[in-house]
């Protein structure tokens, strides 16, 4: 019985690759230094899998930045602006595409399916020539082979690659990207020939696009692509991997009819309906790579349950054709539990990071082969039982309160226009009120203060006075700038989710549980392991301190329940909706405490609401329903005169605009400037919006200072589609990653532009 791993994290157990990349980018180390760190990491991963007994070990899942960009390099699909003139693509061209350089901006990046990993979007058009310009796949195969490991080289599949790409600038938006398939396949054939010549006997194509809602044209592209590759692939075992959700019945049909494919990989953690498709018929003589170990979470596998699933599959596909695998690449989970020095042993026994998941996969394969490691299985069963019965996990009062929410509606008693009138009487704001999203620049000194307080190197008194001082500076600055609704700047927060997680019960934190987000950037999601409750107020002290420093309204600043959920590792022992309802109740208490403390404007950020949207359309309505409901629960208890704001990041809102309206916030600030003002087009098309809205007037992701006229122009564009009395003026997002020399002039211009337009109204 065999075992397989779809892919492995690249960053290293202590983010070695991140530091090597950043040092190279800063000119502090050489290309050779970087390559050495990378090859050491690869070697240790291959060794680890070999030692664990994994049979099908992947190669080419390493990347210096992103596997989709690696594919772009492999195909020589470099946009003309990077001035690449042919030959093997090196670091210069590669990192210019990824990050831009002094004269040319980077290529766009976007989310990889419904994960928090971002890939670099290929820019293609009818004039693009494709040539074999990066031999990374074969080089990694050979590198492993030289170390004595015969690997399965992994390529992003040609159809997934093309469907995820976008028409280059100047190319007609309706250009059919799939029409490039023959040209792209010509290069894939060369790569395959190279891999064969190097001795590969297996090859893996990742085609996660197969779990999305595919039209018949795209399904035909799958059939056509692999038919076209048939002769090139002959003699190789071909695995097509799908992951992140169920495949549709049509996709399953298309996939399993492919002649040249010998093995199919399915995500059986997220794709539970796929099991029924397999049970309904699986092509004889082919391999099933059964993804039973979750690649997207940090929980130890329930080995007994997985073994049952595998046993039932064995009856269908045959003993020698069943391969135990991960649900997707382990890229989306943390790296190694061994480095977690701060988690207690009980919680640790419930967890498995990538390194531990490899061992689980192999233990399952051995058990199927009749060599069950009884000790391993029984300690796993004991851990599962302890998690189930632990009083740290269950809080009955919370369970009851959350259960009571289901099936109810929760809306504020009066409608938004009545509320806005009541609020305006109290707040007396000018037309086109100005505000910011919450955070102000996080300086080196500020980080130091927080770090030293955490390490108990400075007293609470010293810490509080340093933070107060920072708030005072931010308040004074905003008054000088003449901003209407102020923020305290969030100096006490390291991260908008961690800050709340640390104060709520049911959360645990890792020291090294990093997951790659993009390039060298990683996030360290909290772990929600138990029922969530709020032992005491979390933000009231800071918000009321800030309010006491000014007569202008000071926004209370909270992170919403859906965002806390989507940016954490979540429980797998209850539905996501239930966990979110619990968080919503905790935030509701905080909202009401802020109101009691005299805070009249409260912002509840739902930066990541859009991110949690399921891949399949059939599941989206249900998600939006409980997500929006959870948001409303947080503020259903406030008076009409308390103004509830929310904020959302990311530019793709048009398809969920009705859900955004259904959140029933009084004011929403929303990213707008990076998306060519796509957001405004929904209003142009006549969507009715009665609440306050502040589409961002400038991009905070760039150090560029937006000129006054440009901002004024933006505001005018908004006035053309939105009524003047609901429009707010604010940047796209929080300012914490910017520096004061950028923030001061940018906000000065924002206020100047607003006043200019107010005078014209
Ligand atoms: N209030 C948060 C901030 O300003 C919002 C951040 C976000 O939207 N990602 O930093
Ligand atoms: Zn934002």
From TrEMBL:
<feature type="binding site">
    <location>
        <position position="733"/>
    </location>
    <ligand>
        <name>Zn(2+) 1</name>
    </ligand>
</feature>
<feature type="binding site">
    <location>
        <position position="567"/>
    </location>
    <ligand>
        <name>5-methyltetrahydropteroyltri-L-glutamate</name>
    </ligand>
</feature>
<feature type="binding site">
    <location>
        <position position="658"/>
    </location>
    <ligand>
        <name>Zn(2+) 2</name>
    </ligand>
</feature>
<comment type="similarity">
    <text>Belongs to the vitamin-B12 independent methionine synthase family.</text>
</comment>
<feature type="binding site">
    <location>
        <position position="490"/>
    </location>
    <ligand>
        <name>L-methionine</name>
    </ligand>
</feature>
<feature type="binding site">
    <location>
        <position position="649"/>
    </location>
    <ligand>
        <name>Zn(2+) 1</name>
    </ligand>
</feature>
<feature type="binding site">
    <location>
        <position position="116"/>
    </location>
    <ligand>
        <name>5-methyltetrahydropteroyltri-L-glutamate</name>
    </ligand>
</feature>
<dbReference type="Pfam" id="PF01717">
    <property type="entry name" value="Meth_synt_2"/>
</dbReference>
<keyword id="KW-0479">Metal-binding</keyword>
<dbReference type="GO" id="GO:0008705">
    <property type="term" value="F:methionine synthase activity"/>
</dbReference>
<dbReference type="InterPro" id="IPR002629">
    <property type="entry name" value="Met_Synth_C/arc"/>
</dbReference>
<keyword id="KW-0486">Methionine biosynthesis</keyword>
<dbReference type="GO" id="GO:0008270">
    <property type="term" value="F:zinc ion binding"/>
</dbReference>
<protein>
    <recommendedName>
        <fullName>5-methyltetrahydropteroyltriglutamate--homocysteine S-methyltransferase</fullName>
        <ecNumber>2.1.1.14</ecNumber>
    </recommendedName>
</protein>
<comment type="pathway">
    <text>Amino-acid biosynthesis; L-methionine biosynthesis via de novo pathway; L-methionine from L-homocysteine (MetE route): step 1/1.</text>
</comment>
<dbReference type="InterPro" id="IPR006276">
    <property type="entry name" value="Cobalamin-indep_Met_synthase"/>
</dbReference>
<feature type="binding site">
    <location>
        <position position="605"/>
    </location>
    <ligand>
        <name>L-methionine</name>
    </ligand>
</feature>
<feature type="domain" description="Cobalamin-independent methionine synthase MetE C-terminal/archaeal">
    <location>
        <begin position="432"/>
        <end position="755"/>
    </location>
</feature>
<feature type="binding site">
    <location>
        <position position="671"/>
    </location>
    <ligand>
        <name>Zn(2+) 1</name>
    </ligand>
</feature>
<keyword id="KW-0808">Transferase</keyword>
<comment type="function">
    <text>Catalyzes the transfer of a methyl group from 5-methyltetrahydrofolate to homocysteine resulting in methionine formation.</text>
</comment>
<feature type="binding site">
    <location>
        <begin position="521"/>
        <end position="522"/>
    </location>
    <ligand>
        <name>5-methyltetrahydropteroyltri-L-glutamate</name>
    </ligand>
</feature>
<dbReference type="GO" id="GO:0032259">
    <property type="term" value="P:methylation"/>
</dbReference>
<feature type="active site" description="Proton donor">
    <location>
        <position position="701"/>
    </location>
</feature>
<keyword id="KW-0489">Methyltransferase</keyword>
<feature type="binding site">
    <location>
        <position position="662"/>
    </location>
    <ligand>
        <name>Zn(2+) 2</name>
    </ligand>
</feature>
<keyword id="KW-0862">Zinc</keyword>
<dbReference type="GO" id="GO:0003871">
    <property type="term" value="F:5-methyltetrahydropteroyltriglutamate-homocysteine S-methyltransferase activity"/>
</dbReference>
<dbReference type="InterPro" id="IPR013215">
    <property type="entry name" value="Cbl-indep_Met_Synth_N"/>
</dbReference>
<feature type="binding site">
    <location>
        <begin position="437"/>
        <end position="439"/>
    </location>
    <ligand>
        <name>L-methionine</name>
    </ligand>
</feature>
<dbReference type="Pfam" id="PF08267">
    <property type="entry name" value="Meth_synt_1"/>
</dbReference>
<dbReference type="InterPro" id="IPR038071">
    <property type="entry name" value="UROD/MetE-like_sf"/>
</dbReference>
<feature type="domain" description="Cobalamin-independent methionine synthase MetE N-terminal">
    <location>
        <begin position="3"/>
        <end position="315"/>
    </location>
</feature>
<keyword id="KW-0028">Amino-acid biosynthesis</keyword>
<feature type="binding site">
    <location>
        <position position="647"/>
    </location>
    <ligand>
        <name>Zn(2+) 1</name>
    </ligand>
</feature>
<feature type="binding site">
    <location>
        <position position="18"/>
    </location>
    <ligand>
        <name>5-methyltetrahydropteroyltri-L-glutamate</name>
    </ligand>
</feature>
């Amino acid at each position: 019985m065999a075992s397989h791993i779809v892919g492995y994290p690249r960053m290293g157990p202590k983010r070695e690759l991140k530091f090597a990349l950043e040092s190279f980018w800063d000119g502090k180390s050489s290309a050779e230094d970087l390559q050495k760190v990378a090859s050491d990491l690869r070697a240790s991963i291959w060794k680890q899998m070999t030692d664990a007994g994994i049979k099908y070990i992947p190669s080419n899942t390493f990347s210096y930045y992103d596997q989709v960009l690696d594919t772009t390099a492999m195909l020589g699909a470099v946009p003309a602006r990077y001035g690449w003139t042919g030959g093997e693509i090196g670091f210069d061209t590669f990192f210019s595409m990824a990050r831009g350089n002094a004269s040319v901006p980077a290529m766009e990046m976007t989310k990889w399916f419904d994960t928090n990993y971002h890939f670099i979007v290929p820019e293609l058009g009818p004039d693009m020539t494709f040539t074999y310009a990066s031999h990374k796949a074969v080089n990694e195969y050979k590198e492993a082979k030289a170390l004595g490991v015969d690997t399965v080289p992994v390529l992003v599949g040609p159809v997934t690659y093309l469907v995820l790409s976008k028409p280059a600038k100047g190319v007609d938006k309706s250009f059919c990207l799939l029409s490039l398939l023959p040209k792209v396949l010509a290069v894939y054939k060369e790569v395959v020939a190279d891999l064969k010549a190097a001795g590969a006997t297996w090859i893996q194509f990742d085609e996660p696009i197969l779990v999305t809602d595919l039209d018949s044209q795209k399904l035909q592209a799958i059939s056509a692509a692999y038919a076209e590759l048939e002769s090139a692939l002959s003699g190789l075992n071909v695995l097509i991997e799908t992951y992140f959700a169920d495949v549709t019945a049509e996709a399953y049909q298309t996939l399993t009819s492919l002649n040249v494919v010998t093995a199919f990989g399915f995500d059986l953690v997220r794709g539970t309906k796929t099991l029924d498709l397999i049970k309904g018929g699986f092509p004889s003589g082919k391999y099933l790579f059964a993804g039973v170990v979750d690649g997207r979470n940090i929980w130890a596998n329930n080995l007994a349950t997985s073994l049952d699933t595998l046993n039932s599959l064995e009856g269908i596909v045959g003993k020698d054709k069943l391969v135990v695998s991960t649900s997707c690449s382990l890229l989306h989970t943390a790296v190694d539990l061994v480095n977690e020095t701060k988690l207690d042993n009980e919680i640790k026994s419930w967890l498995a990071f990538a390194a531990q998941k490899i061992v689980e996969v192999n233990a399952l394969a051995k058990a199927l082969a009749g060599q069950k490691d009884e000790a391993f299985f029984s300690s796993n069963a004991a851990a599962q039982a302890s998690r189930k019965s632990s009083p740290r996990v269950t809080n009955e009062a919370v369970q009851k309160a959350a259960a009571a929410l289901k099936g109810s509606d929760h809306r504020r008693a009066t409608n938004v226009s009545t509320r806005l009138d009541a609020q305006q009487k109290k707040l007396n704001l000018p037309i086109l009120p100005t505000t910011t999203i919450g955070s102000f620049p996080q300086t080196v000194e500020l980080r130091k203060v927080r770090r030293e307080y955490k390490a108990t190197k400075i007293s609470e008194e010293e810490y509080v006075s340093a933070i107060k001082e920072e708030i005072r500076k931010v308040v004074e600055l905003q008054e000088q700038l003449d901003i209407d609704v102020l923020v305290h700047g969030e100096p006490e927060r390291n991260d908008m989710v961690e800050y709340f997680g640390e104060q709520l019960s049911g959360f645990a934190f890792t020291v090294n549980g990093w997951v790659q987000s993009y390039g060298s950037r990683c996030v360290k999601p909290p772990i929600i392991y138990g029922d969530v409750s709020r032992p005491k107020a979390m933000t009231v002290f800071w918000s009321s301190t800030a309010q006491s420093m000014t007569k202008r309204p000071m926004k209370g600043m909270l992170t919403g329940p859906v965002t806390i959920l989507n940016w954490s590792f979540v429980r797998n022992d209850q539905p996501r909706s239930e966990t979110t309802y619990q968080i919503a109740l905790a935030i509701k208490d905080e909202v009401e405490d802020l109101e009691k403390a005299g805070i009249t404007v409260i912002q509840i950020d739902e930066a990541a609401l859009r991110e949690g949207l399921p891949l399949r359309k059939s599941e989206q309505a249900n998600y939006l329903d409980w997500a929006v409901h959870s948001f409303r629960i947080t503020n259903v208890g406030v008076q009409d005169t308390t103004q509830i704001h929310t904020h959302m990041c990311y530019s793709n809102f048009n398809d969920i605009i009705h859900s955004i309206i259904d959140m029933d916030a009084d004011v929403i600030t929303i990213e707008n400037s990076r998306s060519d003002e796509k957001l405004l087009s929904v209003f142009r098309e006549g969507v009715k919006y009665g609440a306050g809205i502040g589409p961002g007037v400038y991009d905070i992701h760039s150090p560029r200072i937006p000129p006054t006229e440009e901002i004024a122009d933006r505001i005018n564009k908004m006035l053309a589609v939105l009524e003047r009395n609901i429009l707010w003026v604010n940047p796209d997002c929080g300012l914490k990653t910017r520096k004061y020399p950028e923030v001061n002039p940018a906000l000065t211009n924002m206020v100047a532009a607003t006043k200019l337009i107010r005078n014209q109204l």
